[in-house]
Design a protein that fits this description.
- The chain has two helices and no strands.
- It has one domain.
- By secondary structure, the chain is mainly alpha-helical.
- The two termini are about 20 Å apart.
Amino acid sequence: MKIGAGGKGVSKSSAKAVNKYLGVEQKLSDSHTRIFTEGRPMTKGELNANIKNYR
């Protein structure tokens, strides 16, 4: 997912920051969906990887 908001009242740096955030959110969502559909708990490594994405 990408937001092409540059030039429409949103600065390029803001659009870039939002796109980066949305990319992280998409990865997290994909990870949770995969774990849920596999019917298993999240491993400690997966948890740490998810936490790392938000730092």
